[in-house]
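quick one
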Amino acid sequence: MPPPVAATVADLRLGVAQARHRGMTVGLVPTMGALHAGHESLIAAARRETGFVVVSIFVNPTQFGPHEDLSRYPRPLDNDLALCTRAGADLVFLPAVDEVYPSGSCTWVVVEGPLASTLEGTSRPGHFRGVATVVLKLLNMVGPDVAYFGQKDAQQVRLVSQMVRDLNVPVTIRICPTVREPDGLALSSRNVYLTPEQRKNAVALHAALQQAQALVAAGERDAARVETAMKEIIARTPGAVLDYAAVVDNETMQSVSIIEREVLAVIAVRFGSTRLIDNLTITP
Ligand code: AMP
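structure w/ adenosine monophosphate:
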């Protein structure tokens, strides 16, 4: 049986209140739809760990820049509802834009400082303001015990965790591992934009991250040399344009110079107008 779909905050809250009344804990999986096995793994984790699983599907306009892909972002609703059914969601929250941002909305959540201004924060000005605002709104609308995020968007989940700490939001943030295609490409709703040729070459992101891991495993501790090796792989990939490739601290997302403990290799690459990101935790 497909789960009920709530289009309004009032209906959402009613569904959650009924579950609470039955003594259930509540899990939230926030998504922008175009669901794939990565999202499915988040829903499965919520299914295992909480009694009532809410999946939100909302293409949040405020996290897209003026020249980004908001208007063409995929919205395969029937497939999404089928996946939610298969994965065992108990309620799907599918609001219209003006349900989330009624006219006159003028309050924003801004995470300041280096965590929000580096990497994605540099490449996508305003992106994290949109993310933090919509995530706090969703947490306030649902009131979950646990919210599930993917390691695929490593900086996003660090930022959300920081916001939850800073604003005393009563929720546990759970981070789920990145789900990949057999060739290593991280699943992403944006992969459908890739031409067959770009799709083949997009494996370069994972190849670069693996090369970083291999170098560190072989004893390399100089982050700059690891970054150079990652950049070289992208440079010799047809159609790939590097945005960034870096070795950063897992928590602060700031560049490290010497790799002394667990770090994150992060990468962002464009193929035509499609921008892909990925990351890998590396332990020396
Ligand atoms: P999105 O719909 O792209 O906004 O993603 C919704 C959630 O799914 C975010 O927490 C993402 O980090 C997570 N996610 C996206 N892709 C993957 C993946 N390949 N593996 C695991 N989680 C993912």
